[in-house]
Design brief:
The protein has a five-stranded parallel β-sheet, with helices on both faces. It is an alpha/beta fold and 133 residues long. Helix content is 47%, strand content 20%. It has one domain: HUPs (Rossmann fold, 3-Layer(aba) Sandwich), CATH 3.40.50.620.
Length: 133
């Protein structure tokens, strides 16, 4: 599983996740965990979700396209939650992932947010973890 917290992927993380999926012959789950509170009026009008920026969409689509071209089955997920890190931990468990590649581009993510997320992931996830440190 290749995961980020609504920032583009680190190139090293994408390469590691693709190499692992190809070598092991396993499917690749490309997941983006977004911190968004559902707004009642927006939900009633059907506008509860904002589209991803073109840069973010490209960052999510590129690993999926490359994996498909290498013969790897791909699943793309976008999880919206008030608490994206616990949601990430839950999805890793649900998907029964053997490897979690936590690969947000650290230059685009606040240092404290990354540190807190990494600490929570390390303490909760039972799969092997690779982080872009």
């Amino acid at each position: 599983m290749l995961a980020t917290l609504d920032v583009p992927f680190d190139a090293g993380a994408v390469a590691f996740a693709l190499d692992s999926a190809v070598e092991l012959g396993q499917r690749l789950v490309v997941a983006n965990f977004v911190e968004r509170a559902p707004l009642p009026l927006s939900a009633m009008l059907g506008y509860e979700d904002l589209p991803a920026t073109p840069e973010m969409e490209q960052s999510l689509a590129e690993p999926a396209r490359l994996a498909v071209s290498l013969g790897v089955q791909v699943t793309r997920l976008r999880v919206r939650s008030l608490h994206p890190v616990p949601a990430l931990v839950e999805v890793v468990a649900e998907q029964d992932a053997g490897l979690l590649v936590f690969g947000p581009d650290r230059s685009r993510m606040p240092r404290l947010r990354y540190w807190r997320a990494a600490r929570a992931i390390r303490s909760s996830v039972t799969a092997l973890i690779w982080m872009a440190d």
